[in-house]
Amino acid sequence: MEKQTMAGKEANMHAEMRRAFALLSGKWKLEIMWLLDQRIYRFGELRKAIPGITQHVLTAQLRELEADGLVSRTVFAEVPLRVEYKITEKARGLGPTMKALTAWWTKYGKSVPAKPSGRGRKAKHG
């Protein structure tokens, strides 16, 4: 009987972790979160900071992150309109995870073969 209870808890935790992974899934979400952890960005600054992302995709990813409470969007009533994005306190709770990923990459990143950037805008060199 105890195995059934444990199996139920494991299944529930699996479902919960799937929800957590879904929050950060998407080709650009982790990169957006990492950048916003450094400072507040305007939309155009984010687009320039992420080579290969399109305006459409950046808009969609930011909307999803905002809907999930991980990014806040502030609109300033100015001409031209100014919009700023920053991570929320909830997202700052991912700090230890981001630090662990940074430490892992520092140790093993050189052993990972580079991949072509794929679709989207090409990075400008020079």
UniProtKB/TrEMBL annotation:
The keyword Transcription is annotated on this UniProt entry: yes
SUPFAM superfamilies associated with the record: Winged helix' DNA-binding domain (SSF46785)
Pfam families for this protein: HxlR (PF01638)
Domain HTH hxlR-type positions: 15-113
Keywords of the record: DNA-binding, Transcription, Transcription regulation
Name of protein: Helix-turn-helix transcriptional regulator
Organism: Bradyrhizobium ontarionense
